[in-house]
Amino acid sequence: MNRNDKQILQYVLDEIDQSMYSISVSTIKRIRKEHGLLSTQQQKHTPESIRPFIVRLRVTLTDIGAGEMVQALFTNFKIKVSHGVVLQYFHKYEPEALTRRKQRKLRRKRFWATGVNDFWAFDQHDKWKRFGLRLHLGMEVASGKILWLRVWWSNRRTALIASYYLDVVRELGYVCLVTQSDQGGENYGIAKPHTTIRQHLDPSLAGTIQHRWTIKGGNIKPEIKWSGFRRSFSPGFEDLLEAAVQDGIYIPEDKLHMFVFRWLVIPWMQLQLDNYVNRHNSRLPRHNKKKFLPHGIPNIIFERAQDYGLQDFKVVVPSELVDAVTAEYAPRTDPAFELVPPWFDHKITAAYNALEQRDVTEDTLWYIFSSLQAGLRATLSDR
């Protein structure tokens, strides 16, 4: 999470028995050196040295600012560079874009949370519906940590939405007190399993719903996350998809194109979203003096609520209960979990394995897509 040596030392000291073990900043520095983990100063980057890497990132991350760029350089290339050096680069090579980002105006709304894991909020996003992609996001609101950001061919199937929530619960080992969403019917996919878990662990909640429904515009925090997503992630990837549609490479109405697109693009896009979530959760956002919630890195606030004067309301959940609720509300036999039909998966896997170029990147995506759909069309027409 790009912590300095003193901060790393403090985290280690909090986890060990200091009456039996000791560790110093010098030890942290020595271990880091042994593993080739150079600090920002030791890497000695300049605006010129980071330029080739930023040019590569700009293919898809067309409009992110300095803070997110620092994190993207580290996530994608293990480059540690200061915020100041990136700003120097922007002033030198991207002055117009820098001015444009500074001119954006924000609309403010009030929001409050009692503490970490008081409630989780989630929301769907349909701006990529025309490409056959739907997005879904869940977050912990006090820390600002994104818990999941998933892409699939649907975000309206209750079993699928339930699986996003339950996968996170299984990974964390606990739930929040209450979940929150807008009034879409698909959101019962989380409201019901969450209420079931809470009632099982606390029988006094019988007859209650441990979910908060909001009116339009009331689910503020996820809407803010979508706004940031649209600003910093969407433009480059949206241009990549739109260009293929305009050039006739990808025809969403063509069933073969649709299946090839799902099989090839959705897993690749999920990797890009995972990188985006990692950058978001590991980055210190710009300080906002009008914000009453703690200012810090989302991952650290989420994991160390006490350091920010917050209470953690997490409710520990046994894995057996998670398994039982998953079997009831998110059975993997549901067709919603099929990326493509099984018979097509068999065909396209064989066709993909026969390709010489199989490394999917922004540059090779549509070449691989065209090769697969042309080969499959010929194979299927021969039958």
Automatic annotation (TrEMBL):
Pfam families: rva_4 (PF24764). InterPro entries: Integrase_dom_put (IPR058913). Residues 116-289 form the Integrase core domain. This is Integrase core domain-containing protein. It comes from Exidia glandulosa HHB12029.
